[in-house]
Amino acid sequence: MDLKLVKVMKDHCKVNFKRVGSRLGLSHVAVMKRVNRFIGEGLISIGPLINVDKLWFKLVLLLIEVDSEKSIRDLLNRFKDCPRILHIFRIYGEYNLAIIAFAEDERVLSSIMSICMLRASEHIRRSYVIPVSEILFNEFIGLVKVPSEDFNEAPCGIVCTDCNRYVDGKCIGCPSTKHYKGWFKAHEK
């Protein structure tokens, strides 16, 4: 898959307003205005969806109990640009956050389940990791962030070359860094 194309499509997907208008009995201008208004009001987003199964991404659900509201805000700020996090939800019950993330392979999944990402952060009381074994319905997911920079440090502040799992070849690193050894990169080295 050409990730550069996906990156461009993320913010520039087009809708065939004429076709939609004819199905609704509206002019293409009326449809365009409504769609633009919905986008402007944050009601909809238009962008590419990727097939997680066909790309062989491994999905993981992380349940996390964070010690305070301030710590939740700090974590959200720290991980807001993480290319692997697809969704973060506030939840009720024993845990207060649920995160859906992806890994490119088993090595990255193992890192996420052990020492990497949110669950290894300060102010985490406890966490529970649930690897997704199979997608049974709707294998298409909207990518939140396609990496487009070559930083030395990951958006969360971790330097991959300081991590033993990375050094030992047990992790391919963060896609946002110049140290990344995987295929999920939308720019040239």
Q: What is the mean pLDDT?
A: 83
Briefly note the CATH topology name of the largest domain. Alpha-Beta Plaits
Q: Distance N terminus to C terminus?
A: 17 Å
Q: Hey, roughly how much beta strand do the residues contain?
A: 15-25%
What is the level 1 CATH name of the largest domain? Alpha Beta
Put simply, the count of helices is 6
Please give the radius of gyration in angstroms. 19 Å
Structural category: alpha+beta
How would a textbook summarize the main sheet? 4 strands, antiparallel
Attribute tags:
4-stranded antiparallel β-sheet; alpha+beta; single chain; 189 residues; 2 domains; Alpha-Beta Plaits
Task: Describe what you observe in this structure.
With 189 residues, this protein is of the alpha+beta class. The protein folds into 2 domains: 3-47, no CATH class; 51-141, 2-Layer Sandwich (Alpha-Beta Plaits). Helix content is 29%, strand content 19%. It has helices at 3-12, 17-24, 28-40, 69-79, 106-114, 164-167; strands at residues 49-51, 58-66, 85-90, 97-103, 124-131, 140-142. The strands form 2 sheets. Strands 3-4-2-5 form a 4-stranded antiparallel beta sheet. α2 (17-24) crosses α3. The longest helix is centred in the N-terminal third of the chain and has 13 residues, at 28-40. The model has no long low-confidence stretch (mean pLDDT 83).
